[in-house]
């Protein structure tokens, strides 16, 4: 008991001191958004924002000289050191598991929902270290920080797709233009070893506040889950670090009957017992259903525009927000009106291990024409045959639907292909794009241990935009849409017999070589054959 | 319809040749090319029609095809196919058929030059041996660019046989840009052929000096060769707008960047090779190809055309990215050396090996890559048999070329090697 008091006193003292001695103001806000989806599932999105007021990213021109000293109280130092070491202006890292279903769940609260790991960063060009050197350093440092195989996001996965990944914050004007680097690894699996370092970056860890709901047992049991770290600079405000966690849980699965009722206990198996003392604001926001009758408990702090807001700081603890329906859940059998404006389907067709066909189907659910930036960042394992690209609009051939194509072909063992174009989908219509691809044949040492499983190909990214407006990203049509990752089946050699192959081939070459030189070097002679004895003439 | 005409030798060449070409054209106009163009045995990574089309597409859309990894055709193809030659449709069918027709015509002319006559009864048979050889017909239907390489090879040999030195050098320099190993192997006997004549002297070997070679021609020829090679290189550089084509086209035969299965010995060997031995064995395999040039040229100095023929056989067996048309050229060329037919060593064994390999290769390739019921070793084994059959054909021809000098065997005597 005494020890507990002491600890609390010390904590308070240190907080006061740090608040006094802090060179720049820091602000921490946390928010949990909960939303019931049409198919009975619940989207929960945690967002922890730390703002370093008045700070600016490091100018890469100063990379050669000593950096300013870093003193933070709330801002995660481990991340701050990486950002300043490699002079990163903007960075987004997401680790997701599962496929986001846009048709049923609508657009996610956090746009980055691509399967596996995805990292993209905007960096200024500097005199001493090139952008690629710093990109390599960044991914290795983040790999260490988050215990993820981000080191595999090497040159064979790195691309620079400017159009689909516009900066979300502002880019300072340092002279040389900023460059983007993007890489994704669909086979990366997010798990509890990634969540632990994620929680360590939070000022209250998972001890208090909204973060205490981050229970790995429940989060990794969800139908879809993913975490993200976003760093950006807002001009006039400062550097913002946003740690986000999204999950799709299924309360119908947990319930004994057929109820889609949920509360913190059923979703996370925890309640909020304490508030996080350093949080400027701490809110739980519940999107209220419009159609059904329901009860919400406890009484929300405020209720406006279909959103019930709970202030964690003022409400009674333990706080357990819950939503209860009057009637059983009826599973909607038809999804004839998808919640997104665009449905995407991407498949790799063909059973052959030598070639295949990439097929993309876009369906526009709006009654106006839709322009989409289509981005493929394909590892060299699969090579595009662009001359076979065909586009069908509502079943009839129309290659004019594609415009603004940029293409950077892949280089085996070195660089992925980047294919980007703008597709125009007519109102209520469907666009069907097909392209033949060739599958590569790898050296036996390049195959993974489970070679027969195949290779995960990164998701394609589609960014709908309004052709009349100037900005393509973050417009009302919705953000980036990630297709599910693909699995490609590559031909495998026999792994057990490198020695045999070397021996067989070498023997055959030696045999033919020997026979040829035997003929070329030895003279032909005529011998006389007698029944009893041989006699040479 | 064309084959029936070719089987009876005393057929008028003026009738049989157009009939054969027309038959070929009809085949090329069917849907066969689309079905065959992806086949790994008919076109390699260096000669594939799909890759050529892709490169032309990129070139037309302002992307440097050599900035990627898959386009390995010469810039000269880009220049030709984006300007005068059609690459798709009926036009392409005509181009590839014409290419084969020119090849067959060149082979007939080599045969005529060797016999020192303006036409023979065998002409139709020689043309049929080229146009109806499935090893040449199928890659051509698959629109593999190896057809162009074969035709250029035959054209350079034809001009050399006819004493048209400059034309021969021009053709071989063009070939250098399409496929450097072919040029390197054939260059030496080609020079010997230009300064002598193609008459058959297999039965009466004598030193090269006694053939009265015109040595004074050599130095101007070499200079001409350097000039043409430089001109073509410059043209390639201008067409592709850089020097990236050098590593992409010439480098590919040495560094083997693409391990797509083909009929040769290299691809599986270097798929299974330990990484730290790769450069060493690449060097060994490259040098191994070159090692045959000098001994064959020395042993067959009395008949340079025959030496060139044998080196084409070596190439078909051991080159880095072979297609069926490479051994096919060797086998078709046997038609112009009828004098050695009685002296083949094991013709039945060789023919059966070829039959075995040509039936099993497509089968095992399909089972491995498309059916999914076989594995890579099956196809590898059939390529080993194919290499055996090519090696056996080569040994047969070398044996026959040397044995012919001894003449008929008499009763009670046998010919052996010392």
TrEMBL record, chain A:
Coiled coil: none annotated. GO terms for cellular component: GPI-anchor transamidase complex. Keywords: Membrane, Signal, Transmembrane, Transmembrane helix. One of its GO terms (biological process) is attachment of GPI anchor to protein. Pfam families: Gpi16 (PF04113). Residues 1-21 form the signal peptide. The chain crosses the membrane at residues 499-520. This is GPI transamidase component PIG-T. It comes from Hypsizygus marmoreus.
Automatic annotation (TrEMBL), chain B:
Belongs to the PIGU family. The chain crosses the membrane at residues 13-32, 76-105, 125-142, 154-178, 225-247, 280-298, 305-321, 351-368, 380-402. It is a multi-pass membrane protein. GO terms for cellular component: GPI-anchor transamidase complex. This is Phosphatidylinositol glycan anchor biosynthesis class U protein. Its main location: endoplasmic reticulum. The lineage of its organism: Eukaryota, Fungi, Dikarya, Basidiomycota, Agaricomycotina. GO terms for biological process: attachment of GPI anchor to protein; GPI anchor biosynthetic process. It is found in: Endoplasmic reticulum membrane. It comes from Hypsizygus marmoreus. Keywords: Endoplasmic reticulum, GPI-anchor biosynthesis, Membrane, Transmembrane, Transmembrane helix. Pathway: Glycolipid biosynthesis; glycosylphosphatidylinositol-anchor biosynthesis. InterPro entries: PIG-U. Signal peptide: none annotated.
């Amino acid at each position: 008991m005494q020890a507990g008091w002491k600890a609390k006193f010390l904590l308070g003292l240190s907080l006061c001191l740090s608040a006094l001695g802090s060179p720049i103001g820091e602000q921490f806000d946390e928010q949990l958004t909960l939303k019931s989806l049409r198919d009975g599932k619940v989207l929960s999105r945690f967002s922890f924002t730390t703002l370093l007021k008045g700070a600016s990213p490091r100018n890469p021109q100063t990379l050669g000289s000593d950096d300013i000293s870093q003193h933070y109280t709330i801002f995660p130092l481990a991340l701050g050191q990486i950002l300043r070491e490699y002079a990163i202006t903007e960075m987004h890292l997401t680790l997701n598991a599962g496929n986001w279903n846009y048709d049923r769940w609508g657009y996610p609260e956090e746009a980055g929902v691509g399967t596996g790991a995805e990292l993209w960063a905007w960096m200024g060009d500097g005199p001493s270290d090139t952008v690629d050197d710093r990109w390599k350093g960044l991914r290795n440092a983040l790999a260490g920080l988050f215990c993820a195989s981000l080191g595999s996001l090497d040159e064979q996965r790195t691309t620079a797709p400017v159009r689909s990944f516009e900066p979300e914050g502002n880019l300072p004007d340092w002279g040389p233009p900023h460059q983007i680097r993007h890489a994704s690894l669909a086979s990366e699996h997010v798990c509890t070893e990634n969540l632990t370092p994620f929680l360590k970056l939070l000022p209250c860890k998972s001890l208090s506040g909204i973060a205490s709901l981050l229970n790995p047992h429940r989060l990794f049991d969800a139908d879809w889950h993913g975490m993200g770290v976003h760093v950006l600079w807002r001009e006039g405000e400062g550097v913002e670090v946003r740690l986000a966690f999204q999950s799709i849980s299924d309360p119908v699965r947990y319930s004994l009957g057929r109820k889609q009722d949920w509360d913190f206990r059923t979703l996370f198996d925890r309640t909020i017992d304490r508030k996080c003392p350093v949080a400027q604001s701490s809110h739980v926001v519940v999107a209220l259903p419009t159609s059904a009758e329901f009860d919400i408990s406890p009484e929300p702090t405020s209720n406006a525009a279909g959103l019930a807001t709970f202030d964690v700081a003022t409400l009674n603890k333990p706080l357990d927000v819950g939503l209860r329906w009057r009637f059983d859940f009826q599973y909607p059998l038809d999804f004839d009106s998808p919640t997104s404006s665009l449905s995407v389907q991407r498949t790799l067709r063909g059973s052959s291990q030598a070639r295949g066909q990439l097929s993309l189907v876009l369906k526009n659910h709006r009654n106006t024409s839709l322009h989409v930036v289509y981005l493929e960042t394909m590892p060299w394992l699969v090579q595009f045959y662009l001359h076979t690209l065909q586009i069908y609009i509502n079943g009839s051939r129309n290659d004019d639907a594609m415009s603004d194509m940029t293409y950077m072909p892949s280089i085996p063992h070195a660089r992925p292909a980047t294919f980007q174009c703008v597709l125009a989908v007519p109102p209520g219509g469907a666009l069907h794009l097909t392209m033949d691809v060739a599958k590569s044949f790898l050296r036996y040492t390049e195959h993974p241990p489970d070679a027969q499983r195949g290779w995960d190909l990164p998701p394609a990214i589609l960014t709908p935009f309004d052709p009349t407006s100037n900005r393509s990203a973050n417009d009302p049509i919705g953000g980036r849409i990630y297709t599910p990752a693909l699995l490609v089946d590559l031909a495998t050699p026999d792994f057990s017999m490198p020695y045999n192959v070397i021996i067989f081939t070498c023997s055959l070459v030696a045999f033919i070589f020997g026979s040829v030189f035997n003929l070329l070097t030895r003279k032909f002679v005529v011998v006389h054959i007698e029944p009893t004895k041989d006699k040479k003439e | 319809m064309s084959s029936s005409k070719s089987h009876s030798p005393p057929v008028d060449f003026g009738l049989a040749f157009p009939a054969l070409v027309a038959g070929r054209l009809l085949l090329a106009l069917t849907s066969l090319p689309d079905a065959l163009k992806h086949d790994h045995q008919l076109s390699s990574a260096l000669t594939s029609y799909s890759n050529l089309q892709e490169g032309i597409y990129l070139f037309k859309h302002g992307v440097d095809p050599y900035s990627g990894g898959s386009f390995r055709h010469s810039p000269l193809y880009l220049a030709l196919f984006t300007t005068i030659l059609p690459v798709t449709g009926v036009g392409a069918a005509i181009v590839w058929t014409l290419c084969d027709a020119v090849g067959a015509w060149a082979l007939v002319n080599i045969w005529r030059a060797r016999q020192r006559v303006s036409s023979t009864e065998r002409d139709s048979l020689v043309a049929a041996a080229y146009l109806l050889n499935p090893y040449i017909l199928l890659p051509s239907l698959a629109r593999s660019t190896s057809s162009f390489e074969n035709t250029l090879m035959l054209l350079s040999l034809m001009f050399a046989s006819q004493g048209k030195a400059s034309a021969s050098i021009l053709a071989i320099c063009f070939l250098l840009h399409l496929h450097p190993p072919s040029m390197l192997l054939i260059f030496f006997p080609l020079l010997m052929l230009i300064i002598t004549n193609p008459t058959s002297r297999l039965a009466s070997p004598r030193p090269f000096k006694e053939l009265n070679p015109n040595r004074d021609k050599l130095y101007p020829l070499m200079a001409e060769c350097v000039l043409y090679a430089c001109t073509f290189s410059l043209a390639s550089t201008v067409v592709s707008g850089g020097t990236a084509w050098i590593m992409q086209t010439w480098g590919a035969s040495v560094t083997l960047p693409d391990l797509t299965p083909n009929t040769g010995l290299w691809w599986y060997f270097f798929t299974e090779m330990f990484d730290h031995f790769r450069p060493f064995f690449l060097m060994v395999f490259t040098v191994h190809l070159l090692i045959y040039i000098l001994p064959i040229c020395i042993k067959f100095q009395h008949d340079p055309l025959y030496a060139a023929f044998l080196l084409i056989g070596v190439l078909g067996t051991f080159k880095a990215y072979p297609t069926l048309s490479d051994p096919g050229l060797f086998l078709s060329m046997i038609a112009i050396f009828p004098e050695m037919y009685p002296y083949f060593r094991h013709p039945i064994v060789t023919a059966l090996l070829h039959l075995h390999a040509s039936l099993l290769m497509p089968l095992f390739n399909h089972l491995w890559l498309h059916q999914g019921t076989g594995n890579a070793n099956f196809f590898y084994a059939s390529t080993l048999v194919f290499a055996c059959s090519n090696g056996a054909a080569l040994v047969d021809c070398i044996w026959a070329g040397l044995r012919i000098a001894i003449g008929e065997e008499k009763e009670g005597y046998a010919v052996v090697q010392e």
